[in-house]
Amino acid sequence: MEKEEQFRYQVKTIYRIMVMVFSMVGLVTIAGIYLITDPTLSVFKETTETTPESLYVLNEEDEDKIENGIHLRTGLIEAEGLMEVVNNCTNCHSSKLVIQNRMNKERWIATIRWMQETQNLWDLGGNEEIIVNYLVTNYPPGKKGRREVLTNIEWYDLQE
């Protein structure tokens, strides 16, 4: 009977050892899988909550800051009507789209009508005249063409 008790004790000991070994292997496996999926161990680092939107939000005081006559957030020129353009135009597209276009009054109005007909731009009401005046004043068509004819030049003869 004593041998039987000793045998049972040895089996229980082996069973406990096996459970501990398998538990350790399981923990190591879980840790390895976690390291593969998150090698920076970000769960253990203190972070402030960052959302994609918060990466691009300026401080409220910087949001409408103007330096050297340029609205920093949009790159638009500071002038009368700037905020109407910012509030109505940059809701749908980048201000860079405004800056890169240079048009006269008729073309700006035609572009606004096109956006209203095809892009669901709302009725601008009284702001339309303010916006168009701002755009015509600050983003008029560029003068294209050749340079002026050279005048008052002292030519000299090339020597061979």
Model description:
- There is one protein chain.
- This protein is an all-alpha fold.
- It folds into 2 domains: 2-44; 59-138, no CATH class.
- Helices cover 52% and strands 2% of the residues.
- The chain has 7 helices and 2 strands, in the order αααββαααα.
- The longest helix has 36 residues, at 2-37.
- The mean pLDDT is 85.
Keywords summarizing the entry:
single chain, 160 residues, mainly alpha, two-stranded antiparallel sheet, 7 helices, 2 strands
Summed up, what is this model?
The chain has helices spanning 2-37, 52-55, 60-63, 82-89, 95-100, 105-118, 127-138, and strands at 66-67, 70-71. The protein has 160 residues and is an all-alpha fold. It has 2 domains: 2-44; 59-138, no CATH class.
Q: Based on CA inertia axes, which overall geometry fits? A: elongated
Strand order of the largest sheet: 1-2
Give the end-to-end Cα distance, rounded to a whole number of Å. 126 Å
As for the number of domains, it is 2
DSSP strand tally: 2
* Share of residues in strands: under 5%
Order of helices and strands: HHHEEHHHH
Task: Please compute the radius of gyration using only Cα atoms.
Answer: 36 Å
Which class do the helix and strand fractions yield? mainly alpha
Helix content: 40-55%
Average predicted local confidence, pLDDT: 85
Continuous helix count? 7
Strand count, sense and barrel status of the largest sheet are: 2 strands, antiparallel
